[in-house]
Design brief:
Order of helices and strands: EHEHEEHEHEEEEEEEEEEEEH
Strand order of the largest sheet: 3-4-5-2-1-6-7-8-9
Strand content: 25-35%
Structural class: alpha/beta
Radius of gyration: 19 Å
Shape: globular
Mean pLDDT: 93
Amino acid sequence: MKFNTYEKIVIVRGGGDVASGTIQKLYRSGFSVLILEVEAPTSIRREAAFSEAIYEGQFIVEGIKAKHIENIDEIENCWTEKIIPIMIDPKGELIYKLKPFAVIDAILAKYNLGTNRSMAPITIALGPGFIAGYDVDVVIETMRGHNLGRLIFNGEAQKNTGVPGEINGFSKERVIYSPEHGIIENTKEIGDIICNGDIIAYVNNIEVKASMDGVLRGIIRNRSKVKKETKIGDIDPRISEKTNCYTISEKARNIAGGVLEAILYIQNKREEKLCSH
């Protein structure tokens, strides 16, 4: 297949749960989406993350299938079969081969891992670590609150505060962090009802306990390498909302709307400019 920028190819760097909201919306809107991931993704909300296809071979989120492929020649077949291809390419080397219509940096590393405006006619980044108008065309605000999903054309998104979003009055209590560097051994699964003090995992034989009652909305994949004080779990205090563990969050959908708006806005503005000349 000969790829070119006119085929509406969109490459999304990152396949975590927030990225998956954008991936879903772009796929549904008719774009040919390719996901680029690292060799060992560390998504927390794994049941709502296309990145799980790296481990499972294929993975379905809200009825949409992603498939891990290793050969660039398999991409077209995936699109024909209405499947989203996902490949391991942390440096984004495939971007220059495929010449996509747009590149979305949805890694959420809070700093730029190499995305730049030369990669595609339209470049968009989610969250802090990028300067709109310099690194990328548009930055999408990812901080919960009034500006969530806002398009930033000049400057940066709000800095990461390290404070989790509030649900039913709970914020910091909802997030579980690793007590040590090592390999995690999970004792609970996503969707389990847990109580404050329950052991949800071990890291190097050190107990990792739940900090509150609720539903285990996310936990890093079993046997993953983890670093001290990195996020490894997420608790939702609303036991009645257990099904939310398996669907894209309202935050991810809001951000996804911003991404789609940014693509269409830039495209329309450029077309208007061409027509005026």
